[in-house]
Structure formats: C-alpha cells, structure tokens
Amino acid sequence: MFPRPIAQRSAVAQWSYSAMLPIALILWLLPLLGIALTSIKPSSDLASGNYFGLPSYLAFENYWSVLFEYDLWKYIRNSFVVTIPTVVGAVALSCLTGFALGIYRFKGNLLIFFMFVAGNFVPFQILMVPVRDLTLDLGIYDTPQALILFHIAFQTGFCTLFMRNFIAALPRELIEAARVEGVADWQIFWYIVLPLMKPAIAALSVLIFTFVWNDFFWATVLTTSADTRPVTAGLSSLNGQWVAAWHLVSAGSIVAALPPVAMFFLMQKHFIAGLTLGAVK
Amino acid sequence: MTALPDAHGPKRSWWKSNQQRVTPWLFLAPGLFMFAVYVIWPIAASFRFSFYDWDGLSPMEWVGWGNYVELWSDRNFIISLKNNIVWLVLYMLAVPAGLGLAIFLNQTVTGIRLYKSLFFFPFVISQVVVGLMFAWFYAPNFGLFFQLTEWLTGTGTAVLANPEYATYGIIVAGLWPQIAYCMILYLTGLNNVAPDQIEAARLDGAKGLKMLWYVVLPQLRPATFIAVVVTVIGALRSFDLVSIMTNGGPFGQTRVLSFYMYERALSEYGFRMGYGAAIAVVLFLIMMVFITGFVWKMVRDERGH
C-alpha cells in the first residue's frame, strides 16, 4: 500500500493525521459550508453585517420563499422531466450499441467505436447553431423534448464507450455456447447479456442523471420559458433577479444541488465505479 | 395461399445467409442514427455556416474566409484565445493536486470512507452552483476571500471585479471540482497498485518521493491518462463558470472561446451565427489536436490487447 499505512507509524503521526483530516475537510468545503450557513440566515442578519456568526434564528423561510414565491419548484420539476427520460433513453440505446460493438467482429467496428468516443469530447459550441436550428425546424424549441433528444444522442457517445468495454469483458464462452445451441441473437442480448449488465446500467444511470441534471449550456440554448427551463438555467436567471440577496441565492443553490447529491450518496459505489472506468488496467 | 411459402422462401434464405453480417448493424442503428443527427452532422454543418454571414433568419450570404479574416483583427477573440491558454495551463494543476489529495486520503483509519466521499463532493454539484458559491466567497466587503486579503494586505481585493485577477478567480473555482475528480481517479488507481512491488521497493530502501516517482506513478499511468484527458477537455469546455460568475466581464476580460462564441451567436450581443460558427470551428480544431492524440493512444492500447 502506498503511502505506508498510518497505523505503522508513530503515535504522534497517527494523532496528527486524525487531527489534520477534519481541518483539511473544513478548508476544502469552506465555500459549501459558507453557502449552507447563509441559506438559513434571515435577511436581517445579513443586513446587520452578521455574515459569519450563527444565525439569530433558523430562517427556513428562505427555502420556502425560494421554492414557492420564486417558483424554483417548477424548475426542479422541469429538470426531472428532462433528466429521467434522458437516462432511460441513453442507457437503452447504449445497451444496444455496446452489445453490437462488444460482441460482433465486423469491418468498421473500431471505427464506429472511436467515432462515439471522439464525439463525446467535442466542444458543445460546434454543435450549437445546427442543433438549435434543427430543434426549431422540428418545432420542439423550448420544450422538454428538445433537451431530451439532444442529451440522449450526446450521452450515447459516453455510454457506448462504457457499455462496449463492459460487454467486451464478459466471458465470451457464454455467448459462443448459446450460439452453438442455436439461440437467436436478440435472445442472447435479452436473456443472457442484459441481466449481466445490471451493474453497468446502474452506474451509467447515476452518472447520466448527474451530467444531465447539471447541464447549463444546452438548457440556456434550447429553452427560454419558466415552464420548460431546467433548474440550472432557472437558478441563473433568478440570480439576476436576486442581485446579491445572498440568503436566497444560497437557499436556491442548495436546493438545485440536492438531487444529484442525494443520488451520489445513495448510489456511491455505482457512481464511482462508473467514473473511474479505465483508471485501472 | 399456396404461394405464400414460396414468397417467403428466398427472403428467409437471404436473412439466413446474411444474418451474421446484418445483425450488429440492426443493434447499432438507433444509437448511430441519433448520434449522426445530433453530433456528426452538426459538426459538418457548423463548418459550412462558418463561411456564411447569417443572422439565423434572413437568407445566408456567402462570405468565404471573411469570418476567419475578421477573427484575427477581433480583439475580443484574441483575449478569449489567450484566456483559453491560461485555463488550459492552470487547469492541469488539478492532476498533481488530485494525486496529492488521493495520497493524503489513501489510509485505512475509521471514517475514511466518509471523508473520501465528502472530499469528492464538489464534483457532484452543478457548475452553476459552484460558480455561485465562489461568487459569494469572492464577494466584495463581506466575502471570505476579500476579508482574507484585507487582513493580509490592508486592502481587500474583489477578485471578480478586477480585470486582471478575475480569470484566475474563475479558474480556481473550476479547479475545485476538477481536483475532486482527479482525486477519485487516483484513489481507485492507488487501490490497485501491486502491494508486492511496493514491499519489494521498500526492502530496497525506496521511500517517499522516490517510491512515488519510480514505483507508484508508473503503475498509475492509466489513471493519469484519464485525469489528463478529462482535465484538458474540461478546461477547454469552460462555459458555465464564466457565464455565472462574471458573464465575460469585467470589460470582457474573462471571456473564453466557448463563451464568446455563445455571446456572438445567441445573446443580445449578436445573432451572428456564421461568425459564431467560425469561433466554434477554431475551438473545435484546437480540441481536435488533443482528441486525436487521446484517441490515437486508445486505439493503440486497444490493438495491443
């Protein structure tokens, strides 16, 4: 193990390590802690210069006000409306592409695979004008479908990379044996490979959920109205209204961050397995 | 009725003889179609648009290399390009910083799992929220950073209002989640370092930095590769933070190509789609240099298997 386990070091080293851990964490999360503290302060505290002390009372009304007076709940709902179908769509499509690229040997296999991989890295701006144009032509500009279709297509690149590598690592004998038995290809996919892909599907789902929930660029490009805008874009426009009303900005930020954070803590193992794919040989 | 089996006969045999060839394409079709429509075709279309003058509504007007020629005398384009280079260089700090943090946390004391997740936390949060958090951190008068500089130097610095420092302030905000990402890659990598090699090196008297450089880092190569890839791409994609924290200001000094393209093509500043497309093409070509390198290495690894 590297570095040498702290348990093998002197008592002083062990003691100072366990003292350093919480200090480092607090410093690391300082911006987050500051925002969290500000979000439960009444505006009178901020007006009277109480920025760092304890709140004079726990002002949960900030959250109420942000959610219902400024309609942040609507943006949250919009985000779910976009994110959930995207996760389902991108995972479904990439199960199919991953199966094709991971199982069959055919001409163009690697070429297509690396096209998906490379497409995943391109800057969004090179897609912006044509995708916006296409969305207008399809008549879905400023609707959830505009974002859902784009996100499904774009995330399929990353998901295919993931699924293909996962499927290629499955024992080939399993599939060969089924072929010899005369099992049809779609049955191999549905009854043999798909059940084995459950961990990959779980990992991808949490990752795509987070990526799409946190998207800001496409939300601003493809939607404009409060009835369709996801929470990232909504928070940005509310921030313009709130000019430095930090108790509201903070409460809004916390609310917008909550769903992916909850997702992360609930599905941590899958999340990290997905993110670190390829980090080890 | 009797003709039916005959009609099916040749069809079925075609399917039988070509099944192995056609099946993968059937599985690929939906994903490939979506990807072609929303990713591949738009890249080509953007290249085409970049040779036109177009406001998105009226007919397009061919201007040849006009947009590109204009770029070279556009001061704001040069500022954006310069800022992109600053982003790229400073963002790379996330890789060693992530490694350092991973080494710090790669222990087995009680509660370390929770510590690791909490350190990783910033990556899960949307960049919009990260931007707002740092805007609060840098805020004039009461912001923590402002107070810190006031305490140290006597006069507080409002980073985001200062044309010289604002870009660095935004990059620090971007480094926060990026370091967390690199950290988690390295933690996974460290978890898989061969313990016998470490022990052998330790018996030979290797320790500290020497051990890290000669024994551990070579084994962490896959993690380093991914960390570099995601950091380069992240640096060049930076848009959210600039948009949220400064909106390109003060005096346009924090613009980067991705943001300037958006401003030109879509915000009240512009609706010059052709010009915007030309900026996007430049950014795309810069990124292609890196993407080609990454993909080339991945193809080589793939063939090596």
Automatic annotation (TrEMBL), chain A:
SUPFAM superfamilies tied to this protein: MetI-like
Annotated TM spans: 21-40, 80-103, 110-128, 148-167, 188-213, 244-266
UniProt keyword list: Cell inner membrane, Cell membrane, Membrane, Transmembrane, Transmembrane helix, Transport
InterPro entries, A to Z: MetI-like, MetI-like_sf
UniProt KW Transport keyword: yes
Protein localization: Cell inner membrane; Cell membrane
A single cellular component GO annotation: plasma membrane
Main location: membrane
CDD domains assigned: TM_PBP2
GO terms classed as biological process: transmembrane transport
Domain ABC transmembrane type-1: 76-267
Membrane topology recorded in Swiss-Prot or TrEMBL: Multi-pass membrane protein
PANTHER family: ABC TRANSPORTER PERMEASE PROTEIN MG189-RELATED-RELATED (PTHR43744), SN-GLYCEROL-3-PHOSPHATE TRANSPORT SYSTEM PERMEASE PROTEIN UGPE (PTHR43744:SF8)
Task of the protein: Part of the ABC transporter complex UgpBAEC involved in sn-glycerol-3-phosphate (G3P) import. Probably responsible for the translocation of the substrate across the membrane.
Family to which the UniProt record says this protein belongs: Belongs to the binding-protein-dependent transport system permease family.
Summary of subunit composition and partner proteins: The complex is composed of two ATP-binding proteins (UgpC), two transmembrane proteins (UgpA and UgpE) and a solute-binding protein (UgpB).
Protein name as catalogued: sn-glycerol-3-phosphate transport system permease protein UgpE
Biological classification of the source: Bacteria, Pseudomonadati, Pseudomonadota, Alphaproteobacteria, Rhodobacterales
Automatic annotation (TrEMBL), chain B:
CC terms in the record's Gene Ontology section: plasma membrane
Intracellular or extracellular location(s): Cell membrane
Domain ABC transmembrane type-1 stretches: 80-296
Keyword check for Transmembrane: yes
Membrane topology: Multi-pass membrane protein
Keywords of this entry: Cell membrane, Membrane, Transmembrane, Transmembrane helix, Transport
A Pfam family annotated for this UniProt entry: BPD_transp_1
PROSITE patterns in UniProt: ABC_TM1 (PS50928)
TM stretches of this protein: 22-44, 85-106, 118-139, 165-190, 211-236, 273-296
InterPro entries documented for this protein: ABC_transporter_permease (IPR051393), MetI-like (IPR000515), MetI-like_sf (IPR035906)
Top-level taxon: Bacteria
One record GO biological process: transmembrane transport
Transmembrane helix among keywords: yes
UniProt similarity note: Belongs to the binding-protein-dependent transport system permease family.
The protein's name: Carbohydrate ABC transporter membrane protein 1, CUT1 family
Species assigned in the record: Loktanella fryxellensis
